Amino acid sequence: MKTYTIYLFRHGITKGNLNAQYIGHTDLPLTTDSISSLRNIKAHEHYPQVDAVFSSPLKRCLDSAKIMFEKNNVIVIDDFIEYNFGEFEGHTADELKDNENFKNWIHGDINAAAPFGESNAQFANRICSAFEKVIDGCVKTSTEKIAIVGHAGVLMTILACYGLPEAPMAHWQMDAGYGYKLRLTPSLWMQARKLEVVDTAPTSLEELKKSSN
Q1: How confident is the model over 63-72, as pLDDT tens digits?
Q2: Is this model's pTM higher than 0.85 or not?
Q3: Are the CB atoms for 89 and 116 separated by under 8 Å?
Q4: d(CA 152, CA 154)
């Protein structure tokens, strides 16, 4: 049976990441060190050849995608943008620890929302709707290998909602420039909306050599 391969890669680091800030829609660039790190990963490890690359509209994802997949045109999916943190945007958890709205939100209730931001439910519904459209489109057009370069929260939501083995979001944490390889079997996708998580990615060149021997 024909299968499809989907790669999920987290974008490189921004100053907001280094400062442990909540950065959602703020369009921060990659740091110089992070650009060097992504290029180093690419030089020493293997980003796969894919038929299509999808990205959040924010430049930290777009610029990461262009480094990882320089031969591909990047397709922007607006709904893959990071969480809208509203009034929490740009702040750290320590700065917000005495904020009652933050205390309610951080407990993770699905309907909790940041003031003037989106709720956890709205975020999950937005991401899932966009992801299903991308996957259904790839199956319809027989696009067999794709990559999504995105924000950690977006990718972890995808994995928590669709990944097998099933696991909560916290299980799917990933370092910048790295992520997961998933296998899509059309029958499983159509029946259960699930994909198998088969490996981490990218694969090191050493591992590639071992697998080819």
Answers
A1: 999 999 999 9
A2: yes
A3: no
A4: 5
